[in-house]
Amino acid sequence: MQKALQLRITAQDFSSKPAILQQIARALDLPADQLTGFHILKKSMDARQRQIYYNLNLLVYIKEAYQPLTLPEFPAKEVHQSVHEVLIIGAGPAGLFAALSCLEHGIRPVMIERGKDVQKRRRDLATLNKQGSVNPESNYCFGEGGAGTYSDGKLYTRSKKRGSIQKALETFVQFGADPAILYEAHPHIGTNKLPAIITQMRQKVLEAGGQIHFDQKLTDFELKDGKIICVTTLAGDKIKASHVILATGHSAKDIYRLLKAKNIFIESKPFALGVRVEHPQSLINEIQYKCTAAEMAQQGLPPAAYSLVTQQAGRGVFSFCMCPGALSPRLPPSRAPWS
Ligand SMILES: Cc1cc2nc3c(=O)[nH]c(=O)nc-3n(C[C@H](O)[C@H](O)[C@H](O)COP(=O)(O)OP(=O)(O)OC[C@H]3O[C@@H](n4cnc5c(N)ncnc54)[C@H](O)[C@@H]3O)c2cc1C
Q1: Segments forming the whole domain that contains residue 41
Q2: Mean pLDDT of the chain
């Protein structure tokens, strides 16, 4: 039998699987040996009191074989012979997810990307960081994976307007992300893990019959009846297309200029100005946990995080992304050590 359970558990107990099972047994008033396992469906921290708790939504297995939670493979259809084709410009998150969506619908995605694949792109970043010289087509903004590829991969959006967040998270897991992102209140992929996930996505696109062409920059396109029918690349190639997705991102100023030159209506959006603020992690820990570093270690607490949301003179001010423990690598990890 399976039972859904909400459990409030100390951070210390959360770091040990037997301790969690014991707490579950107590909450359900059952002998511990009747429990065969559990899945975490949701996890959030409650740090309002001196004693820190995790609130867990669990699915508990009682007297029945425990089934590990596994996702099926990404449901890509074979598209080698598909008569339907979509040309996707840009292999950032929008382009890659568009390509995967094409595969789900049996449509062949053909992608062109001005930058290099995610591995070769890393070498250009090393040159940029060491020598200060920028490759205009392969840098922090351009190249496979798009703008945020070399960041921490925070996956918490406030927007629920477009599509299913859960499906996007599951897609990341299907391509190698830690399944903990499915239940963490503030999921993130983790520094330097995105390139491997993006590589897996590319391999799926290629295996299924899609195409990705790197070092191919769209420089012009031809319109007929308000639709793009052919695109031109920097090398002078002309690619005919019946359906085109322009997934070129915020940084591609040349694309905005091209759209303007072609009298295509574009409208500016209000934008948010970002600043980077650094605090000592110990200060945030003290404010959040109200305990000493030794007590924190004893309770197995991760570096504390915070988010700020306020209104100033009628404008929203919010923290977009916070990297707890960025300067304190020796503090305990935020995930359960047994997971
Ligand atoms: C340093 C950094 C960290 C970030 N961290 C996070 C985070 O943790 N969480 C989060 O949610 N968001 C984060 N973001 C924001 C996130 O990266 C963007 O919202 C996202 O990348 C937008 O995706 P996109 O596919 O629309 O555009 P982009 O990622 O910009 O991708 C566009 C792609 O199109 C290609 N391209 C552009 N012009 C052409 C052309 N003419 N021909 C062919 N190809 C072209 C580019 O090379 C690029 O690969 C971060 C951004 C940066 C810069």
Answers
A1: 2-62
A2: 90
Q: What is the pLDDT of residues 258-288, one digit of tens each?
A: 999 999 999 988 888 888 888 899 999 999 8
**Test site for ligand 1: of 97, 113, 118, most ligand atoms within 8 A of the Cβ:** 113
**Residue that terminates a domain, selected from 62, 93, 110:** 62
Q: Are residues 93 and 171 in the same domain?
A: yes
Q: Please tell me whether residues 47 and 119 are part of one structural domain.
A: no
Q: Is 3 exposed, middle or buried (0-12, 13-18, 19+ CB in 10 A)?
A: middle
Band the pLDDT of 305: cuts 50, 70, 90.
confident
Residues 154 and 35 in one domain: no
Predicted confidence at residue 327, as pLDDT, reads 52
Helices (H), 7-92: 11-14, 17-28
Contacts 24+ apart (CB under 8 A), 228-235: 231/87, 231/89, 231/112, 233/112, 234/114
Ligand 1 residue neighbourhood (C-beta within 6 Å): 89-95, 112-115, 141-143, 146-148, 151-154, 217-218, 247-252, 255, 321
Contact 300/15 with Cβ under 8 angstroms?
yes
Query: In the numeric block, which tokens belong to residue 238?
Result: 């002309």
For the CA of 254, the closest atom of ligand 1 is: 41
**Which element (helix H / strand E) includes 56?**
strand 53-62
pLDDT by residue (tens digit) across 38-91?
A: 999 999 988 888 888 999 999 999 999 999 888 999 999 999 999 999 999 999
pTM of the model: 0.89
What are the residues facing 5 on neighbouring strands? 58
Whole-number Å distance, alpha carbon 113 to ligand 1 midpoint, is 12
Task: Say which residues have a Cβ less than 8 Å from residue 175's Cβ, sequence separation at least 6.
Answer: 74, 197, 200, 201, 204
